[in-house]
Structure formats: C-alpha cells, structure tokens
Amino acid sequence: MFPQALRSITPNYVNQLIGLIKSTSLVFYVSLLDLFGSVQTMGSTYPGDIVPLLLVATVWYLILTSAVSVVQFYVERYFARGVTRTLPPTPLQKARAGLAEFGARLRREAAV
Questions:
Q1: Is the dihedral of CA 87, 91, 92, 97 positive or negative?
Q2: What's the farthest any 2 CA atoms get from each other in the chain?
Q3: Of 49, 18, 59, 53, nearest to 37 (Cα)?
C-alpha cells in the first residue's frame, strides 16, 4: 500500500520541496545560511562586489534545485516500475542513444 501511495505523492511532494528551495526559506531552515540574505549583508559591507556575490548565490541556488530535481526523477522512475511497460530513459541513456545515432550518421556520410 505504501509504495502505491508514494507513486502518487512523490511528484507533488518534490514540487513543494523545490518551491521551498526557490523561496530560500528551506535553506535557512536546514541551518545553512540564507543565500540572498547573506549576499545582502555582504553587499552592504563590500558594495563593489555585489554582482559576483549574486552570481555565486545564483549558482548555489541552481545546484540545490537541480539536485532535488534529479533525485525526483529517479524516485519517480523507481516507483513507476510495474505501472508502465517501459521506464523513461535516464539522462545517461538518452546521451548514449544520441551519441550512437550521431556516430551512425557520421559513418553513413563517410560511406557516401
């Protein structure tokens, strides 16, 4: 019963988690520094360095949201077993298929 419930709960739960990260309240909640709050504090101390500080905060923000999205993909894929006939390909499988197709196209063009 629990795995069936997780199959429908996971997308909504992880979307809420990503929304919390986007509002940066979760970052503060888990005892990390509030990214943009610390940038604002440091920006008042070093006013000439505000743009590099914002860029670093933005990179951390993208890393956090991307990591949660990747975890969401694999959790949803795990719980989709038995529901669908074929699982969606992983990004690595998509890249391998694309490289194989590109190599085949190059071999066809070289043969002509």
A1: positive
A2: 65
A3: 53
Question: Is it the case that residue 78 has pLDDT exceeding 50?
Answer: yes
What is the domain partition of the chain in residue ranges? 2-84
Spatial distance between the Cα atoms of 43 and 53, rounded to a whole number of angstroms: 8
Backbone angles phi, psi at 73, to 5 degrees: -60, -50
The whole-number average pLDDT for the span 59-78 is 81
Determine how many CB atoms are found less than 10 A away from the CB of residue 78.
Answer: 13
Tell me how far apart the alpha carbons of residues 78 and 10 are, in angstroms, rounded to a whole number. 11
Q: Terminus-to-terminus CA distance in the chain, angstroms? A: 58
Question: What mean pLDDT do residues 63-90 have?
Answer: 79
> What does pTM read for this prediction?
0.51
Integer Cα distance of 50 and 104 in angstroms: 49
Helices (H), the chain: 2-22, 25-29, 35-45, 50-79, 91-111
